[in-house]
Amino acid sequence: MRAMTYRGPYKLRVEEKDRPRIEHPNDAIVRVQLAAICGSDLHLYHGMMPDTRIGHTFGHEFIGVVDEIGSSVQHLQVGDRVMVPFNIFCGSCWFCARGLFSNCHNVNANATAVGGIYGYSHTTGGYDGGQAEYVRVPFADVGPVKIPEWMHDEDAVLLTDAAATGYFGAQLGEIAEGDTVVVLGAGPVGLVAAQSAWLMGAGRVIVVDHLAERLEKARTMAHAETLDYDEYEDIVVELKQQTDHLGADVVIEAVGAEADGSCLQHIAAAKLKLQGGSPVALNWAIDAVRKGGTVAVVGAYGPIQSAVKFGDAVNKGLTLRMNQTPVKRQWPRMFEHIRNGHLTPREMVTHRFPLEEIGEAYHVFSAKLDGCIKPLILPSAS
Amino acid sequence: MSQPTTRDRDTSSADGLPIAYVPDRPRMRETPEQLRARIPGWGADLDPADRPSHPKLQYSPDSTGAHWRFPERQAGAEGRERSIEHAFVTPVFGTAQPLHGVSGMIRRLAYRRYSEARFGHWLLLIFGDRVDAWGSHLRSFATLHPDNPITQTGIRSELSASGTMRRGRSDRRHHLLDPVIVAGPWVIAAGGLVLGVRRFRRRAAG
Ligand SMILES: NC(=O)c1ccc[n+]([C@@H]2O[C@H](COP(=O)([O-])OP(=O)(O)OC[C@H]3O[C@@H](n4cnc5c(N)ncnc54)[C@H](O)[C@@H]3O)[C@@H](O)[C@H]2O)c1
Ligand SMILES: [Zn+2]
Ligand SMILES: [Zn+2]
Fold it and tell me: ipTM score here?
């Protein structure tokens, strides 16, 4: 089969690989029909995640058709069209039993701090991902869900991560009616977080980024106010003035490890790998939120420590909430929101690339060329 | 495009003092009715207790789809690397890119020697990644598919289909610097290594 493979930082190619096999009685093999590149994939692509092996196939956002099932699979049949949460999870460990699907203890031998994720290095378990024609899906009775008839494929693929994460991020913020919510980052995750903040009763939603087309999308798709941080000498001061010197009730950090805004921090993290991530956005969040407020972090960071302003977080009495998204837990309610037009993830799709051109896709998304917000990948077998 | 992207600032307290310095509740700029009229679905998840991720822990083992107490164990766990914070290799695990060669030895050492809590664990893994990358580049030149920096970095996409430069880059402020920063440490490390070996030789000789 054809599959994207990692060849070292900033390098990848499409290769001929063996089709994945059933390796466990509850596995399924899914033929991928549509996949996406996530902001998280950029951290891998840039070589920021330890134990990213040469030859690894990325991709944790995908939908497809069940092609083969293991002997113990009961809930799926060959031919079913499924959407697969980016989390690999067993459904029965201490954590899964309590709904913490992203924190499963039975699927990642390589680390205890993070669960299993498709195509996201060996630090998340060493599973090849879905930017390929076929993918192995463990625990087929637990993760995948049949795509509802009425759902658009592009909404379905975004629900497997980006959209679910935006919605989850707004929930982590514990938004109360009338709250002022600041969203850092107007990528796919931040845009859906901004849309979701309104559903939870926000009184004001302010989105911060520095890419004009993404801020434009935040205004049109998420009805948010926007600030371009490049236009201010100090975005935190601006946010304080905007909020009557109170600070925001809730800040949602949807930027993660490669935050810009401080050249030094960016280089130390993204280029020299001296920290687990550039904490610029996280530190802005800590500064810009009001005392006693909540910072919700869905931006992803590597396992190495980052220079976070923890003292301010303590002194301000903040609540910090964060996780990888337990995707499937979000779905029943999100399906309603999408059906009712309250959430509109596919509005963010700007680019569609055939799998053979995935090298270009990564470059365009990574450098944010051409107004790229969300690129989808179409494997040739689909 | 020059329309203001944020509404004019206003102070919400009656006497014009910024709200942070007085006890008043901040006023909502728009009433719930106004928001509901303007924003599709405003308030649909208003009740915090009725959101999918509340409360954080929801004990419900019978609703996950699992029909086992502990999953059947996948074959092939013997010898597979694992975090020493785990009791055993997890019942299901990834089998992509098994450890091999020098990078495999480095990574195996990282797993066997250090827990996830130790910096050495991650430094060794990062080092293993670099050895793996360089080894693979070198090996690729002996195959029919040598690594190709032009196609593999997607740099061609700087040009659009019509041959013009793609518009807009986010990393314009540091993208010229990036190659230097990426290659720099390698150059410095190589230089350091050469000096170190020389000094060692000299000492060994003298
Ligand atoms: N927790 C999870 O489960 C989960 C799931 C998906 C994605 N993520 C993470 O969420 C983050 C965002 O994902 P995405 O797909 O939207 O990525 P993206 O790269 O498309 O978007 C990030 C945005 O942040 C902006 N940005 C950079 N520095 C900033 C700063 N200092 N302040 C404000 N904005 C800044 C960038 O211009 C960009 O628009 C990533 O770190 C990703 O890894 C986490
Ligand atoms: Zn992701
Ligand atoms: Zn589990």
Answer: 0.96
